[in-house]
Amino acid sequence: MGVTDPAGPVMDRDEVDRALARLGAEHEAIETSLLALQDHAGRRLLEGAELTGITKERWSAAEASITLLWAYFDAYSDALRSAREIRSRRRWSSHDDLVELTELLRGESVTVAGSATATANAPTLMVDPGKLSRQFSLAGLVDVMNDLYASSLDMVVAADAVWSALPARIDLLAAELQRTRKLAHSVGVRPGEHPAGDDLERITRILTSLREQVISDPLAYWLPAQGSSAPGGGRPDTTVYDREARALEEVRREIDAVLTVRQDAEQRLVKLRDVLSRADRTLAEARTARGEVLAKIAATEVPVVSGPATQLQEQLATAAEYRRHAQWHRLSPLLESLEQKAEDELLRARESLTAVTAPLAVRAELRGRLDAYKAKVARHGLAEDPFLIERYDAARRMLWSAPCDLRVAGQAVLRYQQAAAEALAARVPGQGGPQDRGGPGA
Fold first, then answer.
1. What is the pLDDT, as a whole number, of residue 201?
2. pLDDT tens profile 323-369
3. Residue 207 needs a FRET pair 20 to 30 A away by CA distance; which of 93, 128, 186, 270 works?
4. What's the domain range around 83?
5. Class of residue 150 by CB neighbours under 10 A (exposed 0-12, middle 13-18, buried 19+)
6. Do 141 and 19 have their domain in common?
7. Per the domain annotation, does 222 fall within a domain?
8. Tens digits of per-residue pLDDT, 93-104?
9. Is residue 352 one of the residues assigned to a domain?
10. In this structure, are 174 and 138 located in the same domain?
């Protein structure tokens, strides 16, 4: 739609002809726009929809605006037709004709009648609603039609954009939701029994409500573009849809995890039994070693060894029961918990065995050290030294007797080590034996 020139003095014939040509082109453009709006898919949908909320309010105003548009266009067409008839009276228009044409083309010569209700419902018309007619110039009438057309088209395009985008996407997501619900049901993920089942129910309710709201009130889900004056400037608001799509994806991943459990549950249960069995054997070995330590080592603290993890065995039996009854949604979190606890139990058993057998390790280290010094003394020809033999035999009796006092035995090994070092220093001048001052646990 265009804008006519402002009013001026009496027009000559050339000005009249140019104005009529311009107004004719403008008339065609306006008519084309109005027909396009009349045939717009969004407008037809709005006419047949059960609207609510802001869309209902704006469509009521838009319908009034469209009604006025056609009334104004008819008045514009009549004025243009009258002007053409005056101009066609003579080839060379008289002065009176030119005055009449000037008034018609530039003055407020167009009277538009309309209902008070239609005028009041058109938000772009700042007029007294009590008036049933208005006077316009052709230029002023075009401006009003431009405003009415822009506001009406903006509303229609926005509603159509939302209807074109959101319902189809919601339907696709709803179809995916139904597939996920069937899959969830097959693995025991149901509302009231599993959080993912509750999430599926919530997503279903929200999507159903969202679709109903989008259909009845599309403009409630329209975000106008900031600073844009073009009709339909903006985009559909997909915030709720996007949030529920992400939630459904989270549920789908959780169900996939449950499916994975169904596929490898037996293998994981076998591995769990093996880990717990190794932990039990290690604890049994630690208990046996503790008895040996108490019998062979004196004056030492030996930690108490706990019994097998009966609670884990009970949970393992529960997991096997879940598998037999295909309760995969319950088996999945239980297996994850059991796998971690079983590894912790095996580590605890190994640490217990290490702590219990530590005194035996100390005794073995002292025995090895004693024999190493004896071999070194023999290499230097001191194997028959009576003093060294006496010290060696004293240390050996302590280390090979039961119960063995590690503190006293360690001191005996140290005395033999010191005696050997002194003997070696005397036998080989300038070479002293190693002076190991460490205690029994060195």
1. 93
2. 777 677 788 888 888 889 899 889 988 988 888 888 888 888 888 98
3. 186
4. 13-156
5. middle
6. yes
7. yes
8. 667 667 777 777
9. yes
10. no
Q: How many CB atoms lie within 10 A of CB 272?
A: 21
- Structure-token pair, residue 71: 């009334």
Q: Is residue 433 in a domain?
A: no
Place of tokens 């407008």: 43
Which DSSP symbol is given to 442? -
3-state secondary structure of 224: strand
Contact residues for 66 (Cβ-Cβ < 8 A; gap 6+) = 37, 38, 43, 148, 152
Beta strand extents in 231-386 (DSSP E only): 234-236, 297-298
What pLDDT is attached to residue 103?
76
For residue 339, CA distances in Å to 168, 267, 335, 336, 342 come to 44, 12, 6, 5, 5
Q: Are strands 297-298 and 404-405 parallel, antiparallel or unpaired?
A: parallel
Could you give the C-alpha distances from 126 to 16, 121, 170, 331, in angstroms and in order?
31, 11, 40, 70
| Boundary (domain end) residue, out of 356, 380, 399 | 356
Rounded Cα distance between 249 and 403, Å, is 67
Shared domain for 294 and 309, answered yes or no, is yes
Looking only at the bridges linking them, the beta strands covering 234-236 and 133-136 are unpaired
Percent helix, strand and coil across the chain, each rounded to 5? 75, 5, 25
Q: Please give the single-letter amino acid code of residue 158.
A: A
Q: Indicate if 141 and 40 belong to the same structural domain.
A: yes
**pLDDT in the model for residue 209:** 95
On whether residue 441 sits in a domain, the answer given is: no
Same domain, yes or no: 267 and 309: yes
Q: Are 349 and 282 in contact (CB under 8 A)?
A: yes
The candidate with the shortest Cα–Cα distance to 65, out of 52, 41, 46, is 46
pLDDT at 435 over 50: no
Compute the Cα dihedral for 167, 172, 177, 179 and give only its sign: positive
Cα angle 181-187-190, degrees, rounded to a multiple of 5: 55
Query: How many domains is the chain built from?
Result: 4
Mark whether 86 and 144 lie in a shared domain. yes
Residues 6+ apart with CB under 8 A from 159: 42, 45, 46, 55, 59, 218, 219, 222
pLDDT category at 308 given cuts 50, 70, 90 is confident
Which pLDDT tens digit goes with each residue over 105-162? 777 767 777 544 445 445 445 445 555 677 777 878 888 888 888 889 999 999 999 9
